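Postdoc handover notes: sequence design on the structure in folder B. Input tokens:
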């Protein structure tokens, strides 16, 4: 009798637990927000404007994202980088500085264009540009961002490094860093607003191994990009071996685009776009969208290149071969085809040949030249002159 009553109570208890779980789970901060199923696309203020941004700049970029056709090509996030931050009030609530009089109104404006708004902070007391960071104010800041209607947070290690340095050991420093990123993850999830969470700590401590678990939808794998071929190529080609860490919801981030900023020629920018697409990298334009040449627009909005980047299988590509400055990279795509980049890192044109057998295809394959938007027919191998610092990007499918 006694044991029957006991097991009855246990059952009721189990039902209550299950009910609580079902009701509360969607709101608990353990739940992953369903964002960034494909690598985030958008724009970020830093590469072109650095600290010279204000409310009008951001509105202007949002306008241009629509009028240039970038929104329709898939670019979505308008991301304010460093230098928007003002002071905290007596309650500790962060306020924007005088360049951004009303962040909520700005978010509403960006949303009214069918776009989303991103913002920037640091887990340290100060950001890289010396502005107020989120240290010890994570929950408050996450709530403030959510109340403004922010959809994306780039969280840049910077100021925390001082605190990590004083921790006494690399292990302790690592712990401080991971805990800081996890703290903001939990704070963001508690808001109930699905924000994209972007780690920026320059690839330290092999972030690709622990970033996703710590809540990152994307994590920078390197230091800052610059608008020149050498730096872009060092970063891009340096991504070999990281493919297995990326997937829907969590991406390697080799940094924002420099396309259109003027420091590279068209072949070099085509290399930049092609490599980032093969890498399933976030495509965050870093130029002034309000003054783009038709050529820059064409580079940024090429539908076939974007389709490779945004492929639904979410498998990052990798290097297949390298012979001196000639590198072949390939990325498997959802429909069974492959994106293949023939990259020439030499400062003069070079002949390259790819044998499709080496890429796992048995029979002749159908070959499309993506940038030329041309079907080349069915073949077993392909020989082509690749321009200096340039690329021939192919999409190949079994025939
Ligand atoms: C760091 C980041 C950059 C940018 C600046 C802003 O250098 O890596 O992407 O956010 O800080 O200060």
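Designed sequence:
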């Amino acid at each position: 009798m006694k044991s029957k009553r006991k097991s009855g109570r246990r059952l009721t208890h189990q039902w209550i637990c299950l009910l609580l779980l079902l009701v509360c789970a969607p709101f608990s901060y353990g739940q992953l927000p369903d964002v960034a199923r494909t690598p985030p696309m958008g724009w970020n203020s830093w590469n072109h404007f650095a600290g010279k941004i204000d409310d009008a700049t951001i509105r202007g970029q949002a306008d241009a994202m629509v009028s240039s056709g970038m929104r329709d090509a898939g670019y979505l996030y308008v991301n304010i980088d460093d230098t928007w931050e003002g002071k905290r009030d007596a309650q500790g609530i962060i306020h924007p500085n005088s360049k951004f009089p009303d962040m909520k109104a700005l978010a509403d404006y960006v949303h009214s264009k069918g776009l989303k708004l991103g913002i920037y902070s640091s887990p340290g007391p100060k950001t890289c540009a010396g502005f107020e960071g989120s240290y010890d104010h994570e929950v408050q800041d996450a709530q403030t961002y959510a109340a403004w209607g922010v959809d994306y947070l780039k969280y840049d290690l910077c100021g925390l490094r001082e605190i990590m340095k004083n921790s006494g050991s690399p292990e302790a420093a690592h712990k401080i860093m991971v805990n800081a990123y996890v703290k903001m993850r939990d704070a963001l999830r508690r808001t109930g607003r699905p924000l994209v969470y972007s780690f920026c700590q320059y690839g330290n401590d092999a972030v690709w191994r622990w970033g996703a678990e710590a809540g990152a939808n994307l994590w920078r794998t390197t230091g800052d990009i610059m608008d020149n071929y050498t730096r872009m190529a060092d970063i891009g080609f340096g991504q070999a071996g990281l493919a297995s860490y990326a997937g829907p919801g969590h991406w390697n981030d080799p940094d924002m685009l420099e396309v259109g900023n003027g420091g590279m020629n068209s072949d070099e920018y085509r290399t930049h776009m092609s490599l980032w697409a093969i890498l399933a990298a976030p495509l965050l334009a870093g130029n002034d969208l309000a003054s783009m040449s038709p050529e820059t627009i064409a580079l940024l909005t090429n539908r076939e290149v974007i389709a490779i980047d945004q492929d639904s299988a979410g498998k990052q590509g990798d290097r297949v071969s390298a012979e001196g400055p000639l590198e072949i990279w390939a990325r498997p795509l959802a429909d069974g085809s492959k994106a293949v980049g023939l990259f020439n890192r030499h400062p003069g044109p070079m002949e390259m040949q790819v044998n499709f057998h080496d890429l796992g295809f048995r029979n002749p394959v159908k070959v499309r030249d993506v940038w030329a938007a041309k079907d080349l027919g069915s073949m077993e191998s392909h020989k082509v002159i690749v321009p200096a610092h340039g690329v021939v990007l192919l999409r190949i499918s079994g025939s």
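Context for whoever picks this up: Residues 17-29 have pLDDT under 50 and may be disordered. Don't rerun without checking with the PI first.
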